[in-house]
Known about the structure:
Rossmann fold, SIR2/SIRT2 'Small Domain', elongated, binds adenosine-5-diphosphoribose
Amino acid sequence: MNKSDLIKVAHLLKSARHVGVLTGAGISAESGIPTFRDSQTGLWANFKVEDLATREAFECNPDFVWQWHVARRIMLINTFPNPGHRVIAWLADAVDQLTLITQNVDGLHQAAGSPIVHELHGNIKRTKCFKYGHPIEQSLADNHPDSPPECPVCGSLARPDVVWFGEVLPTKVFGIANDATIHADLFFVIGTSGHVQPAAAFGLMALESGATVVVINPDPDSAIPGGMFLQGLSGVVLPQLVKHGWGIPASVFQDQVSTRKF
Ligand code: APR
């Protein structure tokens, strides 16, 4: 990672008026959660996410798609925020304005203490019904690991409250994200491969609006032309930005077991 770029970004962060942050699966990788482009394992090894996370897949085989989401929720149970999540939570009070938009459905930004998390793709800890989106008690969902229970209101099947491929994003969240790409003077794109639209376009949109865009990712292919690129793990780079911007040692963000179990 280029040290002078790191220090430059740290000073921009300290003096920023409005910081936009878009995160993807990469920010949760150091919490032990496989990213989407990691290969699937176990029973799901022969299936692509794109083949499981769709309305059509659920209508065709509700039990199988439901069980895949149950398995993902179980995988999240013993995961905790990592220093990357904790720095973003800390920044919410340290900078004038911060808008956090995540593609992740794991709830770790909330567990790290981020006060406002805009979830573009929903949250796998929440359940709703397939037909009308009626909220369904998580305890009812958790008591049915093999087959989705019926909605107590309309009788349609329960489904996870996440955005599947081909479904529209939550309008309000999309509007907030869009506003952040227009108004932020500093916009971070952290831990995302940029494979899925419209989130993949937010970095470029912010750049076009005149923001300084900073990509944080170990993969150089994720860099955005015209933006800055800090190559490395978000759990390492983000604490370094706080160290160079505020003089706070990176150790402050290490290994605090989250106050809220996931
Ligand atoms: N720190 C920062 N970035 C990391 C780290 C890390 N420790 N580990 C991996 N990455 C990067 C990878 O290099 C990759 O660019 O995180 C990115 C993960 O990319 P994806 O697996 O494609 O995840 P994401 O970009 O969030 O996917 C977007 O696609 O599957 C759909 O809806 C799903 O929200 C998801 C969307």
